[in-house]
Amino acid sequence: MTNTVTAPDPSLRAAAQARSDAQAKPTGALGRLEHLGAWLAACQGVNPPRPLTDVRVAVFAGDHGVAARGVSAYPTQVTVAMVHGILAGVAGVSAIARSVGATVTVHDLGVDGLTGVPDEVRRFHVRPARPISDEDALTPDELDAALAAGDTIAAEAIADGAQVLIAGDLGIGNTTPSAALVAATLGLRGGDVAGSGTGVDAAGLARKAAAIDAALDRVGARASDPRQRLAALGSADIAAAVGFMTGAATRGIPVVVDGLIASAEALMAEELAPGASAWMVAGHVSTEPGCALAQRRLGLTPILDLGMRLGEGSGAVLAVPILEAAGAALREIAALADL
Ligand SMILES: Cc1cc2ncn([C@H]3O[C@H](COP(=O)(O)O)[C@@H](O)[C@H]3O)c2cc1C
Ligand SMILES: O=C(O)c1cccnc1
Known about the structure:
- This protein has helices at residues 10-21, 32-44, 77-87, 92-100, 140-159, 175-186, 190-193, 202-219, 226-233, 236-250, 260-272, 289-298, 314-318, 320-332; strands at 55-61, 103-108, 164-170, 255-257, 280-282.
- α2 (32-44) packs across α14 (320-332), α6 crosses α8 (202-219) and α11 runs parallel beside α12.
- The chain folds into two domains: 10-50 and 326-338, Nicotinate-nucleotide-dimethylbenzimidazole phosphoribosyltransferase (CobT), small domain (5,6-Dimethylbenzimidazole Phosphoribosyltransferase, Chain: A, domain 1); 55-321, Rossmann fold.
- The protein is globular, with a radius of gyration of 20 Å.
- The relative contact order is 0.19.
- The longest helix is centred in the middle third of the chain and has 20 residues, at 140-159.
- α11 (260-272) links the parallel β4 (255-257) and β5 (280-282).
- It starts with 9 loop residues before the first helix and ends in a 7-residue tail after the last helix.
- By secondary structure, the chain is mainly α.
- The structure holds alpha-ribazole-5'-phosphate (RBZ) and nicotinic acid (NIO).
């Protein structure tokens, strides 16, 4: 596993922008679509960029001990139910991915009580994350194993032809560790980053902010080290997604970032593999306050803002047609001089 990231090719970005400028439209008339097209060309190393025919969502599923603090509106059994839902192709991300021609896999990185699934799903199974307000979620060895699992999942998808990778999340309670990671990274408190997640009421929101503050106070200055922050405040599913994102960036494959959980993971990926965020676009911004905060820190401007708060990679995969249209515009619009 390497952490060395080479930036998307700046000469191809410039060439794509020049091609766009010469096309049969007023200069700049396609707005941010032009930037997305140039970014895609730079990522692919070819101008105009190739069509996106192989986009993959890997959903990282895991349970979170902190859920016992009453931070979610739903019981933890929903995590198992939703893994089965994804396997059956009937989850939210399943429907949206199908509508855009993307594929979805799900990976158990700490789901409590998961049975009746293919071995492949449990290949990287570990125990659920310990409650972050009371103890570190992971040991250093567990952190390494989770990061390596995500890197392997990315490597295998890329070797199999994936052009774009998306990390999806699944696990009751996961907005709490994600918000805690954003708070610790940005120097904020629970009240700044806690959102309603699955729909907690005001008392639930207060419990969530308090759980985040307890975790931040417990970890203290250790949080300034990104590995310690991730092990103390994260989880195996979150760490695996971080390894998946760094695995994509180190291999020169673009990533579309989803909501709060993925944006927190992207923050961690950028710290563990500096430059990784140059391989990312934000597919959407969710309604969780920590999501916009993380994206702003990374300099990522979301493609979509639809008031979504599902996770699973759903908002990211929904943005893929916009990215594809950006590439199509570069490929198919004639040069004004040729008309
Ligand atoms: C039926 C259902 C399907 C989901 N799919 C994703 N999430 C999302 O919501 C959960 C995080 O929110 P919180 O931190 O408030 O628990 C995670 O499972 C996340 O993937 C779902 C949540 C539910 C209830
Ligand atoms: O921001 C997200 O992706 C999100 C929000 C609520 C629940 N699950 C995910």
